[in-house]
Write a structure and sequence with these properties.
By secondary structure, the chain is mostly helical. The protein has helices at about 5-20, 25-35, 40-65, 70-90, 95-115, 130-135, 140-150, 155-165, 170-195, 205-225, 230-250. This is Probable membrane transporter protein. One of its GO terms (cellular component) is plasma membrane.
């Protein structure tokens, strides 16, 4: 029996969660595409990126329309991330897929643990906007994390949200909104580069998934404005932890 139709509800759920708490949809799409849809890792990466363009793009339009995103740091982080995406695409051609997926799980779990053990001693001084000068010391991290977008379709939001939250003292909603824009632009560039070197995506899965991610991408940002900051942080931590553990212990050798 075909499982392609399951991409529709999966797309809605994944896009809602990803745009709600700011982690990249790739970390949820990769287990689905490899374990459920049975795609090989290379095709799963490209398929995930194409789907994310729809979901993250939809979410980006929602936060921009609602004026939740600070465009200056968002576009600056995106420009820096563009330097890392081509490196990731190149690495995807030379590094073992199983090794990369396991590394993805380790990194995700590590970031979740760092986030959960970081104490919020500034709850009354969080901000919704930051200057480019404040953002500058962390721009290189956007380039570094973007390598994972080109490599595994993993969104930089998994790593940038904790930095924007804990280092720049942005609210969770503002940090997630900024990262949505960065991830949408990264996914588009990475998808184009992968397609240019001759890789393909699962067309039928994408056609089923796109309606779901377009809808979920609109709902997630709207829910974010109604959920307390601390609750969003906890959802981010739990989601990243579960996805990381799943990657580490279930992905290698499963295809």
């Amino acid at each position: 029996m075909s499982v392609e139709w399951t991409a529709l509800p999966a797309g809605f759920i994944i896009a809602t969660l990803a745009t709600l708490v700011g982690f990249g949809g790739g970390i949820l799409w990769m287990p689905f595409l490899i374990l459920v849809a049975r795609l090989d890792p290379t095709q799963a990466v490209v398929t995930s990126l194409v789907i994310q363009v729809g979901g993250m793009g939809s979410g980006s339009l929602a936060v921009i329309k609602a004026k939740k995103a600070d465009l200056r740091p968002s576009l600056t982080l995106s420009a820096c991330a563009f330097l890392g995406v081509p490196i990731g695409v190149w690495l995807s051609r030379v590094v073992s897929a199983d090794s990369l997926v396991f590394l993805l799980g380790v990194l995700s779990l590590t970031m979740a643990l760092v986030f959960v053990y970081t104490q919020d001693d500034f709850e009354n001084s969080v901000v919704s906007q930051v200057s480019l000068r404040q953002t500058a010391p962390y721009l290189w991290l956007s380039t570094l994390f973007a390598i994972l977008t080109g490599l595994l379709s993993m969104g930089v939001g998994d790593f940038l949200v904790p930095i924007l939250r804990n280092r720049l003292r942005m609210t969770m909603e503002s940090a997630m909104s900024a990262c949505l824009i960065v991830m949408a632009m990264n996914a588009a560039l990475a998808a184009i580069l992968h397609l240019m070197i001759g890789e393909t995506f699962a067309t039928n899965l994408v056609l089923w998934a796109i309606p779901g991610v377009l809808l979920g991408g609109q709902i997630g940002p709207r829910l974010a404005g109604r959920i307390p900051d601390q609750t969003l942080k906890e959802i981010f931590i739990y989601g990243l932890s579960l996805a990381g553990i799943h990657m580490m212990f279930n992905m290698p050798g499963s295809h």
